[in-house]
Amino acid sequence: MALADGHLPVLPLGADKRPLGNCRACADLACGGRPNMKTPGPCVCPWPCHGWAAATTNPSVLASRQWGLAWRRARAIGYHPGGAGVTVVDLDNVDAIAWARTTLPPTTTVATTRGEHWIYSGTVRSVNKVREGVDIKSLMSYARWLGPGTGTMADVPAAVHALVEEKPAARPATRAVAVPAPAGGGRCPHRSPVYLERGIAMAEQRITGAESGVHNTVYRTFLAVLSAHGRCGCLTEIHIGRLFAAAQAKGESARHCTTAWTNASTALGM
User: Fold this and answer.
1) Is 123 helix (H, G, I), strand (E, B) or coil?
2) Span 54-105, pLDDT tens digits
3) Would you give the distance in Å from CA 145 to the centre of its chain?
4) Partners of 144 in the beta sheet?
């Protein structure tokens, strides 16, 4: 609660340093999988309850019954660096630390079990293995809270930006979606370019404007789009790609987008 009060979005981590499912439905992988992790399977939670997307500063959420089980099982506290406006350069060994000391400007430093976290003000795209023993954790990522550290925090240096830019960003995944033809083979009532374009644009804006609960917003937006246009043949791969791109720009992975789309289709009996 003290960290959240200090504007640090937090989440519970298990003994393996991985995020815990913050609701009973997702405890011990009962939901079939955890978003933002490598475990396969869908998750149909009505709220973000896994990984960096669940990190929050809202005291009501942190103290809620849904999160209670996870906090009781937690062995560490995680946080979303990007949500706190910082970037963590995770140095996993002595060689990585030596590289940082000769390449990066001094900043707030936190000791870890294997190395150090160098924390800078500002956000960048998160990328693992930018070089041997070095991960960049900021947007769409989480880090373990190990204390406030020592030293004065500096801005993200050009060297970190360069490392991130060297790695290509993930492209929105294309997804082939089969939708039923209009009932009775009639003319689709939504085939108006203006009507359809306005609907897709509004959906993009809804996702882009989400201040919190992005995972849930994406699912509900996909559900609304499919409810309006999924059964009449209006949607094309271009439209779906736009929705996926908007979701990924807010931090959803390609896998999350596919899962949310599939879950929305299933919910509508499609």
Assistant:
1) coil
2) 788 888 888 887 778 788 889 999 998 988 999 999 999 999 999 999 999 9
3) 18
4) 78
